[in-house]
Amino acid sequence: AAPGPRSYTTLRDEAVKLFNSLQQLESERDPVPLMQGVLQTCLDLPPLVDEIYCQLVKQTTEPPAPGGQGDLHYWQLLTCMSCTFLPSPPVLRFLRFHLDRRSRFPGSEMAKYACFIREALRKTKGRECVPSLEEILVLMRRQEMICTVHCPGAPACSVAISSHTTAEEVARELVSRLGLSQSPNLFALYEQSRRREQPVRSAALLADVLTRFE
């Protein structure tokens, strides 16, 4: 299930806990839950976003085993952070400088993550929810998610989405696929649960909707 409400102590104490989580991440065999926990804390306590970005830049600068499991876990968390939060302008400049340095080694996994993160930072505007476990897994591989949309009177459609894809963009693609571009009707996406059905805001990120369903 998606992370539920948490109780927190002081920002200083939570920063120490996050630092310990990052240390644990290096040797974690299944890093996804730990990554989601770090992201959730940052969502609940925005002042810690810059702290985690700075820690991740530090951990991915001259690591003891470049390209090793621990190094890649840090890059993968940095990828998830870049698709969820924007750092403050000074930290963003620092981060972009760090990414530019990694990009000087084309073909390496670190360079590929650096390019992906740089592109994500151009699109990220902030999230309502942290990435789902599925989204974290695809971000770790720098891939897109597949979203299934059920259309009245038509087969279900599978749509590839990123962390930045809005409901309006998916609706436009489906309208085009179904040959309804000339229709005078308006189209929207709806999310349905056992208790209710409601339209999805055009500007809503589909990744947030999927996290709520998780």
UniProtKB/TrEMBL annotation:
GO cellular component: cytoskeleton
Gene3D superfamilies referenced in this protein's UniProt entry, alphabetically: MyTH4 domain, Phosphatidylinositol 3-kinase Catalytic Subunit, Chain A, domain 1
Domain MyTH4: 1-140
GO biological process: signal transduction
Domain called FERM: residue spans: 145-214
InterPro entries per UniProt: Actin_motor_Myosin (IPR051724), FERM_domain (IPR000299), MyTH4_dom (IPR000857), MyTH4_dom_sf (IPR038185), RA_dom (IPR000159)
A family per Pfam: RA_2
Residues in Ras-associating domain copies: 143-214
Transmembrane domains' residue ranges: none
SMART domains per the UniProt record, alphabetical: MyTH4 (SM00139)
Protein's name according to its UniProt entry: MYO10 protein
Gene that encodes the chain: Myo10_3
